Amino acid sequence: MHLSDYLLLVALYKYGGLYMDMDALWTRAPQDRMTEFIGADLSDSPEDLSWALDDQNNYLATGLMRFQRGRAMFRHIAERYFTITTYDPSCFNCYGPKAFTQYVKSHQQVLISNGMQILPREGLYPYNWKEAEGAIKKTRPPVDPEQELVRIEERGIGLHLYGKVTSKKPIEDGSVVAEALRIWALELFETSSSPSAGSVEQRLQGPRVLYYTEMPPQRSGKPLKSSTTSSATEAGIAFLEKTPGAFQGLDAIFIRGSGKIAPAASKGLITKKASLHITIREGSVTMDPFVPLSLASFSKSPATATSKTNRGSAGARKIEMDLGDDVTMAQLNLALSRIRYLPPSTSSLSKAWGGTDEILIRVVFGELQKELVIPVVRKAGQRL
């Protein structure tokens, strides 16, 4: 019954990395690739207070986490709980949430000083196991599925569906999960049995408007309830905040649809020549520098990035990136996910920025040539 719990412990201890349940969804990518984190959830069982993380009955859920390899926590739990004398197959939570919570509770000062962050419930578990079915059922007024998804994405990076409760139930049209699939599904496969099956028109998707959120200064000087758990949670809240100008989550830009697949290519990776062309009317863009390297590591021909700056009367910035001749759709989407808009600096303008801009993104992927024109609007933000 607990084989997956044991394998999780062994895999993360030996290799490290990010573990994710098959019934969990991303709403946007984590801010970085290094921060170690685990998410908290809230128990409604008074019996759990004896081992909960705090007096609010928070505990550590194990549906999604990221750690470096060799962390003693994983070996300790595996060796302590999975023995002939200690293993109890009837205890559902003993070798997952309960074991992790008890270990972190007794070692939290060391773990937190080493950078571990505890994400609040909204970060990964906006619905608890009793509420999860509501995510796949059609919403009823006044709840709108798109607005509910916006609320979840603004406050967190994941959504757990608790497959033990939801796996045998249909995803209803008009539900939060159906809305997520409508926005993010790559549509690589046609469900029809017609001759066109496997050929879904490719298109470039992006936000109708990019709201550039200007965040207020970080909070400081606020007393914490404790010097351990609360400080880890405070850091976790900061980790969940959206990066202004990033094309992540509901603002993601990506290619979706399989396009026409040649029979000879259907059994292997499909690669094509790809390039990006970006023009900004007033501001500029930056891209994560590891993108070309990531592409090059998968491509037969090195991916190169060339940028050109054109400062006309409007102060436009033009960037052209040749990603290579053998680029997969996944690699192209990775590059698109690393684009980040920057508003014009006050020093480069004769007057203050008016709070609006425009981005033109042109993508070439084999025979596909698509453009997006994305208006930018400044928006005042609020910290989580």
Automatic annotation (TrEMBL):
Signal peptide: none
UniProt xrefs under Pfam families: Gly_transf_sug
Superkingdom of the source species: Eukaryota
Family membership: Belongs to the glycosyltransferase 32 family.
PANTHER family in alphabetical order: ALPHA 1,4-GLYCOSYLTRANSFERASE FAMILY PROTEIN (PTHR46781:SF8)
The protein's name: Glycosyltransferase sugar-binding region containing DXD motif-containing protein
